[in-house]
Amino acid sequence: MGKVVDLKERRFHKVTAGKVVNACNELDRIVHQLLFVENVPASELISALCQRIGVYLSHTDANREKVIKKLAKIIYKHSKGQGL
Predict the structure, then answer these.
(1) Contact 4, 24 (CB under 8 A)
(2) One-character DSSP codes across 34-83
(3) Closest Cα to residue 48, out of 26, 27, 62, 67?
(4) Neighbour-count burial of 22, counting CB atoms closer than 10 A to its CB (0-12 exposed, 13-18 middle, 19+ buried)
(5) pLDDT digit string (tens) for 24-67?
(6) How far apart are CA 78 and CA 35, in angstroms?
(7) Are 39 and 29 in contact (CB under 8 A)?
(8) Are 10 and 80 in contact, with CB atoms under 8 Å apart?
């Protein structure tokens, strides 16, 4: 999978960045296992992941509209030419 988290961003502290990168790496491993080894349809996995993101978002005080717009941009940018 690709690098999504930019560790140069000021908002990441050393400890936080490491935890985020480790979580992303673990998620990459799990997604690879489900899609390519266990042949889980991507449409099912993506729907479930989106549902989870919504649950996590509901537990924060983040501006939902801004987060959703940013997520849409990230998904679009990283889906172009990745050929999963």
Answers:
(1) yes
(2) IIIIS---HHHHHHHHHHHHHHHHHTS-S-HHHHHHHHHHHHHHHHTT--
(3) 27
(4) exposed
(5) 899 999 999 999 999 999 999 999 999 999 999 888 888 899 99
(6) 17
(7) no
(8) no
Written as six digits, the tokens of 56 are 């996590």
pLDDT band at 84, cuts 50/70/90? very low
Tokens of 9: 């961003």
34 burial level (CB within 10 Å; 0-12, 13-18, 19+): middle
Cα 23 from Cα 20, distance rounded (Å): 5
Residue type, 48: A
The tokens for 75 are 């998904």
Query: 20: which residues sit within 8 A by CB, 6+ positions away?
Result: 5, 12
Structure tokens at 26: 């673990």
